[in-house]
Fold this sequence. Notes:
This protein is an alpha/beta fold. 33% of the residues lie in helices and 24% in strands. Residues 32, 36-37, 40-41, 115-116, 155-156, 159, 194, 219, 221-222, 224-225, 228, 258-259, 262, 286, 288, 317-318 line the site of acetyl coenzyme *A. The site of acetyl coenzyme *A has 24 residues, from helix 2, helix 6 and helix 8.
Amino acid sequence: MKRPIAMIAxxxxxxxxxxxxxxxxxxxGIDTNDEWIxxxxxxxxxxxxxxxxxxxxxxxxxxxxxxxAAGVTPGEIDSIVMATVSPDHLLPAAAVExxxxxxxxxxxxxxxxxxxxxxIYGVTVAEGLIATGTAETVLVIGGxxxxxxxxxxxxxxxxxxxxxxGATILKKSTKGRGVLASYLRSDxxxxxxxxxxxxxxxxxxxxxxxxxxxxxxxxxxxxxxxxAVRSMADAVDRALDAAKLSADDIDLVIxxxxxxxxxxxxxxxxxxxxxxxxxxxxxxxxxSAGSIPIALDEALGNGRITEGSTVMFxxxxxxxxxxxxxxxx
Length: 329
Ligand code: ACO
């Protein structure tokens, strides 16, 4: 096992005020029901951004909480790594908007787009910045306002997603705490199973893109499900190998919260009982890059993670991308 270089020194989270239950979809004309959504996904409710709530406002709020927890001021942050697929603007980067909002006047700021695996990619990039001496203190945020880029008429996707942000401060490791292993992969040949067909630079934007739904997230759910289970299993195995640990050494698994059935299949593959797996998909839905850091902040707050805990983070998302991080707290 390698000596950790970077550790998680503080976390925070922020979600929109409005909670939307499954029953509310019928009221807006979606042909679905609470029983279908709960049985197929485990989701009971999600947070939906309202007027004035943006990715920047949620991320800045989460970042301020994380900075307080880590005892860090905005001026001490050297780099901001923002993982998101739903930036407030396509130009400039979401990270720069957060940099301005929190007053991190010395920080470099850039986005990492790895969809739901974004926070895992971001933590690995942050570790590299610290390892090379480029940065001492890195703010890694995973956050989304997916409800603004999903098709509210498409029942295949609109019941799945929610909004929120989780922030993490990474600093140089002390007392053997920190990232023990990370593993990152991608397969772009599968990109069209989960994507936004238009709205980028490939084609000139037209009004048709809004009416034909191609401006919004589209997904082949059944295919995504199969790949998710396979990729999460791969990520579990490879991170354990890299850290030279067994499943028994892991105190808590924090998987990407997309679907309870994917989480249960991952736990079964890892040979970890569900009581060692953190689940909050019921209350948040799939917040993509926000899901793992939001769960991490909850788990630190409610005592599921304590000093000395060894935690595995495992994620999967559009791209496809997948990966894992094992860290000691
Ligand atoms: N309510 C009621 N019925 C629905 C709904 C809904 N909200 N959505 C789909 N259905 C219907 C379908 O139309 C289909 O009907 P049909 O048989 O008459 O054609 C039926 O339910 C079954 O549809 P499936 O897609 O086969 O259902 P499945 O059991 O696969 O569940 C789900 C669908 C929940 C989307 C599942 O496939 C899944 O979770 N996939 C993975 C999704 C995921 O993790 N995505 C995020 C990746 S992370 C990221 O990067 C954002």
